[in-house]
Write a structure and sequence with these properties.
- By secondary structure, the protein is mainly beta.
- Strands 5, 6, 7, 8 and 9 form a 5-stranded antiparallel β-sheet that branches.
- The two termini are 28 Å apart.
- β6 and β7 form a beta hairpin.
- It contains no helices and 16 strands.
- It has a domain at 17-152: YVTN repeat-like/Quinoprotein amine dehydrogenase (Methylamine Dehydrogenase, Chain H, 7 Propeller).
- Helix content is 0%, strand content 37%.
Length: 208
């Protein structure tokens, strides 16, 4: 788009809960209780769903959906019941951003704080590697007893965010950049079940 030009489009849904990959290639947001993944041009990618999410009766979504910097994972905060009730816990579901598969579930020692401008609040954030999660919590759900809970993941779940370029010539010789999460030094990439040819340049693996 040329500089200083803007386009306004009508929308039939609104959201104030938005997470983004660090390079702006993917966005996650909640609208009407559903999390959607969108590309940089806001085109639809997926609606991650998982039957495992229904294993918690009375599960309540909390504002603050966070996308892993690579776009590979979604950190989705929730409560095990209505905010402020005794025995209610806060939790974080880490989902695969494409399939919706539940990769990890974390229960917090306290529930999330949600009654401080809940329509515009964001009660969960992640660091630049997705290794640490920052949650605004409270012993009883009220702002008077609010605190910061920091979760250090022993290992970030493995996931693929983006692969660029998305298409290459059949003759090969292309350099692929794979952005994702949880890559280790021994991580290897296969294409159609095969390692890249020795004379080809190895794809670049990048874990945010």
């Amino acid at each position: 788009m040329p500089p200083n030009q803007f386009v306004t489009s009508a929308a039939n849904a609104s959201t104030t809960d938005l997470g983004a990959a660090s390079d702006g290639t993917m966005f996650a947001f909640q609208s009407k209780g559903t999390t959607e993944i969108r590309a940089a041009d806001i085109s639809f990618i997926s609606v991650p769903t998982s039957a495992e999410l229904q294993q918690i009766p009375g599960r309540v979504l909390v504002p603050g959906v966070a996308l892993h910097p690579s776009g590979a994972l979604i950190d989705q905060p929730f409560l095990t019941g209505a905010s402020g009730r005794a025995g209610v816990k806060g939790g974080i579901d880490i989902l695969d951003a494409h399939s919706g598969a539940l990769r990890s579930r974390i229960f917090l020692p306290q529930q999330f704080t949600t009654d401080v401008d809940g329509l515009h609040g964001s009660f969960l954030a992640t660091d630049e590697n997705g290794q640490r999660l920052f949650a605004i919590t409270s012993s009883d759900g009220t702002p008077q007893n609010a605190a910061l809970t920091v979760v250090q993941l022993a290992a970030v779940p493995l996931g693929i965010g983006t692969i660029a370029p998305s298409t290459v010539a059949a003759t090969g010789g292309a350099t692929l950049t794979v952005r994702g999460s949880g890559f280790q030094s021994a991580t290897a990439l296969t294409i159609n079940g095969k390692l890249p040819a020795l004379h080809s340049r190895m794809p670049t693996l990048f874990s945010s």
